[in-house]
Each structure stands twice: as C-alpha cells, then as structure tokens.
Amino acid sequence: MRIDVYATQCGVADREIKDRVVVVVDVLRATSVVVTAINNRCRDIIPVIEIEEAVNMSKNYDREAVLLAGERNAKKIDGFDLSNSPLEYTQDVIEGKTIILTTTNGTRAIKNCSDAKDIFIGSMLNARAVAEAITKSGEDVTIICAGTEGRFSLDDIVASGLIIHEVINGGADVELNDLGLVCRELYSVYGDNVHDILKDTYHYNQLLEAGFKEDIDYCLRKNIIDKVPRYIDGVIKL
Ligand code: MLT
Fold first, then answer.
1. For residue 146, which atom of ligand 1 is closest to its CA?
2. How far is CA 205 from CA 71, 209, 216, in A?
3. Which residue ranges in the chain fall short of pLDDT 70?
4. What global pTM score does this model have?
5. DSSP per residue over the chain, as a string?
6. What per-residue confidence (pLDDT) applies to 118?
7. Where are the domains of the chain?
8. Distance from C-alpha of 121 to C-alpha of 23, rounded to nearest angstrom
9. Which of 22, 32, 157, 220 could be 123's S-S partner, Cβ–Cβ 3.0 to 4.6 Å?
10. Could you give the CA distance from residue 41 to residue 55 in angstroms, rounded to a whole number?
11. pLDDT for the residue 104
12. Is 108's C-beta closer than 6 angstroms to any atom of ligand 1?
C-alpha cells in the first residue's frame, strides 16, 4: 500500500484527497478529543470552522441533546459547554450527545478533506486501530497533519510515524513519500521517548504554559483506544 504524509493541511493537491482514504491527525488536541469522545459514546460530532456557525447550528437541537465545544488560543470559548481538553469528555458528560466542535486547526483540516473516499480520525491514542483500518481498506492513503496555525507541528509527525510503524508491524508492504520516510525514521529513533523530542516544540509549550500538562500526557499515550471515528457527510461517528 502507499501512504503519503502531508505536514499541514495547506496546499494538499485535490488528487491526494479525492478517491483516497484520508487520515486526519491533530494530536494536540483536536483529533485526540474526537477519538476520546467517540470512545466515551457521544452520539456524534459535527466539526465546524467558525464559532458563530457552531452557535447557530446548536439552535437546531434540544438544549439537552447538544454540547458546544472547542477552543480559541487553546482556551474554552465563552458560553461553550466544553473546551478542547480531552479529559473533559468523560462518559457521564457526553454519552448520547451531539457535540458541535470548533477548533483552530483540527476541525478545519477535517472539513477540508470532504472529497475523500473515506476519512478516518487518527491520533496516538488509536494509532493501531487506524493502521488496521487503513490496511483493511486496501486503498492508497493520505495522512494529513493539521499542523498549528498553518505551520508544521512535530507532534502530528510523530503520530504519523506511529501509525506507519503499526501498519508495517501488521505485515503490510508500505511505499512512503519522503515525509512518510521521515515519520517512519523519526518514530523508530524517538518512539520510546516522545516527550523528549517534543519538549521544545511550539504547541507542546503553548499548552504547557496554559496549564494543560495532563492533556499532553494523555494525548501522547499510545494505542489505548481501539476505535476509529469516521467523518461522513459532515458528521463524525464510529
Ligand atoms: C486545534 O485544533 O487547533 C488544536 O487542537 C488546538 C488546541 O490544542 O486546543
């Protein structure tokens, strides 16, 4: 199988999305939130780009059935129910609810892939399950890293390396683009010391300074969730 990795969502050619399986990765923290929320049995998640769009959409639901969620500058949005901290998405809070989620980079990256054949939501948390799903699909795969504010973010590259590593461990023959090769090599050297390689990076430190160390520790855990959320017709479900 072929896996092409892109460092940000910007400038990915349509042909790399259309008719391919796409995995969107935003480890810190949007896709880790989505994977956690699906694992804790929310009904579904609707990713939106703008805050106003999220608020307007929520008016179509019974107040009890919907949660407004997301962040700007890593902080909870005024008037929203949940921030972008995966640790808030516990089963008692979210079970059975529709979550309307808007984040700076992650939800935009998910929506930008709408033309793909199939869209999976990936993270370190569910890397092995994603690897199994893409291998089973038998399709060529594009991994799109959300990045941070249009820039490359090393946490997403490390997670892509973990997904590739899991695909290879599963016995598949993999052909990679150059960034895919970097992900594979980086992960094989630093995979056991993920915090070491990330500790000087921008987004890691932005979250650390904002008091989200527990979120970072959680988002960097590997293969603790065996579910793969899918984005279909504007909605993320299991
Ligand atoms: C995003 O989607 O931009 C991120 O998940 C930001 C964050 O860490 O809250």
1. 2
2. 17, 6, 10
3. none
4. 0.97
5. -EEEEESSSTT--GGGTBTSEEEEE-TTTHHHHHHHHHHTT-SEEEE-S-HHHHHHHHTTS-GGGEEEEEEETTEEPTT-SB-S-GGG--HHHHTT-EEEEE-SSHHHHHHHTTTBSEEEEE-STTHHHHHHHHHHHTS-EEEEE--BTTB--HHHHHHHHHHHHHHHHTT---EE-HHHHHHHHHHHHHTT-HHHHHTTSHHHHHHHHTT-HHHHHHHT--S------EEETTEEE-
6. 97
7. 2-232
8. 6
9. 32
10. 22
11. 94
12. no
d(CA 238, CA 28): 21
Give yes or no for residue 74 CB within 6 A of ligand 1.
yes
Is residue 141 within 8 Å of 3, Cβ to Cβ?
yes
- Ligand 1 atom with the smallest distance to the CA of 30 is 5
What pLDDT, on the 0 to 100 scale, is given for residue 150?
86
Please name the residue that has the structure tokens 């990679």: 176
Q: Which pLDDT score is estimated for 6? A: 97
Does the Cβ of 104 fall within 6 Å of ligand 1? yes
Q: What is the pLDDT of residues 117-170, one digit of tens each?
A: 999 999 999 999 999 999 999 999 999 999 988 898 999 999 999 999 999 999
Q: Give the CATH number of domain 2-232.
A: 3.90.1560.10
Tokens of 24: 């969107």
Residue closest to 157 by CA, chosen among 117, 118, 202: 202
